[in-house]
Amino acid sequence: MGDHMQWSQEEEENAKERAAENSRVKVQREDQERYEREASKYWNEFYKTHKNNFFKDRNWLFLEFPEILPEKRREELKTEQRSLEHTEINTTNSFSHKNEMFEAGEKYWKKNCGGGSTAVQGYEYNKTQAKPLTDNARGKNSGEELGRLESFPGSDATYRILEVGCGAGNSVFPILKVLCNTPGTFLYCCDFASGAVELVKSHSSYNSAWCSAFVHDVCDDALPYPFPDEILDVILLVFVLSTIHPDRMQGVVNRLAKLLKPGGMLLFRDYGRYDTAQLRFKKGHCLSENFYLRGDGTRVYFFTKDEVWNMFNLAGLTEVQNLVDRRLQVNRKKKVKMQRVWIQSKFQKPLLLSLNKPEETTERNPCR
């Protein structure tokens, strides 16, 4: 694989022509409505067929999104990665560099987090049971507002993560593996396919002491989350928004933004415009512009980074990162080259303005 490849003008024009060609014949309106109405059905069928064997665990998450981790844990991981770079990694090969980091990182996490008892979220976990280690998991500084709220899963945590569209847990369990020795952390994960949530809950590494998996349709604004607004430190939105009808995406992002606490981060990765997957669609699979129907009834949209910026900006989030990640994948066995395109973004909820902020703004604006 080649990282961050630049396309020539000819390649760009060719991709546009292929996308225009496969978009000329649209799916019939009544069928589009059916696929929208029965979206969860097709994803349930997907997980019933593939179980947890279709996607690989996303151990790359911590390289691309170190913000998933609490700051202290993040620094520990950075130190470990620097050590690995000096001892095990061939820095002349970018793809090899990342793969070796993942492999060495997994060995480190297994050594430090795998097997035996481990302290998580104020509990001791030995794969068969969880019991409190202390009566004061958060300490006395838990905050008056949360103290007044009715108890909810993860209510005593100090650092909370939500993964939207968790699928079979390919992000959930790598995250839990890294957080296993980080007291005070809690992971929520949801999917609107009940079959996917059941796969997560039935996994040998799942335990409600530090993780809560639940069925949820993010498109349903009236459906409450099992926790209050403004308590999440991180929301992970990876290859999920593309499965939602374009007309409903803004509403989903708006609602998710309300769940973040001030300073919280939303981490996004999804399909980019003219990715190989888009160009491979045949005529008759296009639902609307850049929105397609797969053969199994699931759907996928292909973004530009400007579209992503507009959505998150309208939701009141501030850009930290927003880039197009172009890579060249080569299947040497089949002698096939694939030009992959992904959008990777990080957006932050602004911190609350201090009382003297307006005065500072006035001083910097001589026209007022």
TrEMBL record:
Write down the InterPro entries for this protein, in alphabetical order: Methyltransf_12, METTL2/6/8-like, SAM-dependent_MTases_sf
- The UniProt record lists the EC number as 2.1.1.-
- List compositional bias (Basic and acidic residues) regions by residue number: 15-31
Q: Which UniProt keywords apply?
A: Methyltransferase, S-adenosyl-L-methionine, Transferase, tRNA processing
Q: Which GO terms describe its molecular function?
A: tRNA (cytidine-3-)-methyltransferase activity
Biological processes annotated in GO:
methylation; tRNA processing
Indicate yes or no for the key word Transferase: yes
Q: Where is the signal peptide?
A: none
Listed Pfam families: Methyltransf_12 (PF08242)
Q: Entry's SUPFAM superfamilies? A: S-adenosyl-L-methionine-dependent methyltransferases
Q: Where is the Methyltransferase type domain?
A: 162-266
Q: What domain of life does the UniProt record list for this protein's source? A: Eukaryota
Q: Which parts of this chain are annotated as the region Disordered?
A: 1-31
Query: What's this chain's function?
Result: S-adenosyl-L-methionine-dependent methyltransferase.
The family this protein is said to belong to: Belongs to the methyltransferase superfamily. METL family.
* Name recorded for this polypeptide: tRNA N(3)-cytidine methyltransferase
Source species: Calidris pygmaea (Spoon-billed sandpiper)
